Amino acid sequence: MTELQILGAIASAIGLAIIIKNTEFKQLVDDAAFQHRFFGATAAVFVLWIFRVGIVDELQVHFIWLTSLALILGFRWAIISSSIVLIGVTVVGYEKFSMLGVNWLLGTLMPISVTYAIFSWSFHKLPKNLFVYLFVCAFFPGAITVSLKILMMAGYFQLDTDLGWDVIFQNYVLLIPLLLFSEAFFNGFTMTSLVVHKPKWVYTFHDKFYIDGK
């Protein structure tokens, strides 16, 4: 492992420990409906993460769907769910164990934190209606988070691997325009379907704020 990978592993272990310490696991044990949402969402993310494309092994891309995960489960449970997925795809060989810390920081914590920060800002600063929720909290964060992940991972590969910037740019960074709209649409469609048909499944959505009296 490189120094950056070791630092990433230490930082991710500390971060995940803090999140786990502050999570009430009694909810997962006692609430059968939440169990189904949690494990169902975790399985869905796992399936998405094993379908990936790329010419260079280290520079493969896939849908992340963490914006929807954060909105459905909330910040802490989304982190725990995506951490399980990351460990799972690493164990089955889609990621390297040496990259576990870096992948957690840039591919799990960052997208969920950005999504939740945008949601919190929107909730307190913008008008509360359904279209604001779907576009500002789901569609745009989907585009932003996948773009940021690729850019930050590209920076890591430039700093800590033998890959040249031309290879990284041509085989990784240039994929942002292809993934940006697709990820945004995927998250927007997911959240639209859920808030219309199963709003009680969405932790961050409440009719009294976004629909009632509008």
TrEMBL record:
Q: How does it sit in the membrane?
A: Multi-pass membrane protein
Which Gene Ontology biological process is one annotated for this entry? transition metal ion transport
Entry's transmembrane regions: 33-51, 63-92, 104-123, 130-152, 172-196
One Gene Ontology cellular component term attached to this UniProt record is: plasma membrane
The reply to whether Cell division figures as a keyword in the UniProt entry is: no
The compartments listed are: Cell membrane
UniProt keyword annotations, A-Z: Cell membrane, Membrane, Transmembrane, Transmembrane helix, Transport
- Where does the source fall among the domains of life? Bacteria
Q: What name is this protein filed under? A: Uncharacterized protein
Q: Which organism is it from?
A: Glaciecola nitratireducens (strain JCM 12485 / KCTC 12276 / FR1064)
